[in-house]
Amino acid sequence: MSDTAHADRPPPEARRGGFSPHTVRLAWILAVAYLLVIAYASLQPFRGWRMPPPEILHFSLAPWPRYITLEDIAVNLAAYAPLGFLLSIGCGARYGAPLGALAAALAAALLSLALEAAQMFLPARIASNVDLLTNGLGALVGAMAAPLFAPTRIFGSRLHRARHRLFHAGMAADAGFVILCLWLLTQFHPTVQLFGSGRLRATFELPAYAVHTPQLAFSAEAAVAALTVTALGLLCSALMRSGQRLALPIAMLIGAAIAIKAFTAIALVRTPSPLSWLTPGVVLGLLAGAALIYALARVGTRAKLVLAALSIVAATTAINLAPANPYQSIPPQLLAGGQSHFLNFSAIVRALSELWPLLAVSYLAYALGARRADGS
């Protein structure tokens, strides 16, 4: 019987939560990774620690702010929903779907409480009971949604069949698919250029290594876009089963990233120039990346993994060496100065954007090592 026929049925080893053991194990790993991202984002900047004054020790009982917008609520819900989703898969395997969702939401709420309490020791951050409530609700929404994606459910079974029809089976392929999805989330960070993940200059206050010129900015934008598209295309190709068409999945991935970038500029940042990031250098980079993917599509899987890792390293180097663009303004929502729930959400996606190249290269090294161990 073919692999595709097997993929049409839910895995026989599915546990009480409806997910296979390797999916549950992957969910726990991703939950820990996302927890670290949230902690990294919530405790920035990592300096200025001091004992908080007595009047803010009871932030959970403080009066609610006078103005709370729907946007503030939505972004905090979105920040903790993935954590609740992942924890629900893991807890559901042990306690069943209903109790697992409840345990996941409670664990995420306790994490939010701990991080809000830790923020009281940082003068640049403000602990908020509104954040605490919306973070907990977001985790609950994500936890309740997780059982719907189980292979034994109607919606989950369709995704399960499509995933196994297009991509290789196993935990390694699942992890690679998650790396691609995490990259999409990094596009919600509104201050980086298109596909400019891994920019660390602002976080570590590194100096600029070159003076801005139009020619240098053009070259940097083209290089970053081309190298990133090449890396994503090679990774996607390495994950896909032989005989499957490569162009459509890659086009959908890049198209989704561009749509997210435009949505962020229009709906979240509300910039008057929502397509200002679509520069001639970026367009040239997208075309060059597509040409490189076409040229390298027939190389072996090992070569694809190595070239993808090298492309990510090169793109990260280029984005950090590129000159700062003096014409790129910082959205007002991202300027520190008072409580801003959008600022908290942006900190999480910024942290994910900064850490994604490390996660991606680590995965590619793992996948390459696994293929060597298997002799494939």
Low-pLDDT segments:
1-15, 333-342
Give the C-alpha Rg.
Answer: 22 Å
The figure for the number of domains is 2
Calculate the mean pLDDT score and round it: 80
Strand content: under 5%
Shape: globular
Order of helices and strands: HHHHHHHHHHHH
| Alpha-beta classification | mainly alpha
Distance between the termini: 22 Å
The percent range for helix content is 55-70%
Main sheet: strands, sense, barrel? none
What is the β-strand count?
A: 0
Number of helices: 12
Describe the structure.
This protein is globular. It is 64% helix and 0% strand. The chain has 376 residues and is an all-alpha fold. It has 2 domains: 1-166, no CATH class; 183-376, no CATH class. The longest helix has 34 residues, at 341-374. Helix 7 runs parallel beside helix 9. The model is unreliable at 1-15 and 333-342 (pLDDT under 50).
Secondary structure layout plus pairing:
Elements: H1 3-7, H2 21-42, H3 70-95, H4 97-119, H5 129-145, H6 154-166, H7 171-186, H8 214-239, H9 247-268, H10 280-296, H11 301-321, H12 341-374
Short structural description:
With 376 residues, the protein is an all-alpha fold. Helices cover 64% and strands 0% of the residues. It has helices at residues 3-7, 21-42, 70-95, 97-119, 129-145, 154-166, 171-186, 214-239, 247-268, 280-296, 301-321, 341-374.
